[in-house]
């Protein structure tokens, strides 16, 4: 069985064959004396099968010759007189890897399918690249069409055993845009906008875009679950893309994943922001004459999860005392690594995060239902719930006296309401014998804002009066003296009661009886 270096080298040659034109494929076939008829797919399959037969048959000299022909054809510099009996095996000091040289982590590639130098990605605290499993393949510009590149992953026995034993050992697809400086700078993970990834004909469900207009927020595509974990099994990973205006570089890496729990445990083992340091900084700001220091409210809830903070942390670059929860922050960065402080939006990193002992002490000194504390400029803090007292509820006591009735005049909204004596707002219960004769008398007795008590209605008016001929009732007169009105009304009540007791049927008329019923407001029938 071929070694890992030889398998990776074979996959590089096959991937390069798939990027060639028909003319290049025919040149390779002619150099080996093979048929040149058929469509492009037939030419590719014919060359690939021939290469695999040479590799598996142990004919290393012809295999090495054909490999050099493929690379030379890709460079468009294949000599016309090149033939199998003229070509010699490459020297040991050649930069191109041979069957006696192990594949480097990033193999040199041509502009038609291989990188021109080492491809390095920006470090992430969530992943550590252990080994490159495939060569780096170039995705050409396709502004109006679509294209596909294939990566073949062949695992050896050691890698297969480790993948089966360690769930945090993952196989991931890395991709980056070709900027021309990839071999000198660290690249962000970036996939084409229109892209589809398949592993062993299964569609890979992964977010390959990241956040809009924020480079570096894309994660590598995890294809571990789609890979056949068998030694020597050829796993095919195909990336189909379209409508690209720049080239991309793609490869497959074996990485060690670091879960959030592991990173939080690492934070706890680091040097912390001590309580004394925080108090010293707060006192220094309070003593500054150019700054007016006042008490502030510190929230004990994480601004990301809106839950109470469990592990308070913040960046060393931040000047605020407000912290955020380490679990929530790292979980968010694992999904979309923006690495910005959720409080002040400053750029941060995992290396700059530290646990704040001052806030941690507050969290352990308060009950879980406390959401915020008041912090003084000198560092002293207090619990607002413990200092506040419960306010008495404004409940109106119920009255047991059913005889007190409050009457409001309908249709007459007062302009200004003032506190009045109790006699003006309530009436005493009328004796039983005075309730039955007339409901009109009750209405006159219950009204508090109608007219002075001296104006009395004739209850024995003629029934023959034509209501249509009666004049329009004049506007209501305002009450000028509520106290005098109540006294006059009491006198009216006494006289009316005497009238009922004596049994007289003559109409009861007030001292100002010269007014007709229609002029007095029309309270009769």
TrEMBL record:
GO terms for biological process: protein sumoylation. Pathway: Protein modification; protein sumoylation. This is PINIT domain-containing protein. Keywords: Metal-binding, Nucleus, Transferase, Ubl conjugation pathway, Zinc, Zinc-finger. Belongs to the PIAS family. SUPFAM superfamilies: SAP domain. Residues 510-525 have a biased composition (Low complexity). InterPro entries: PINIT, PINIT_sf, SAP_dom, SAP_dom_sf, SIZ1/2_SP-RING, Znf_MIZ, Znf_RING/FYVE/PHD. It is found in: Nucleus. Coiled coil: none annotated.
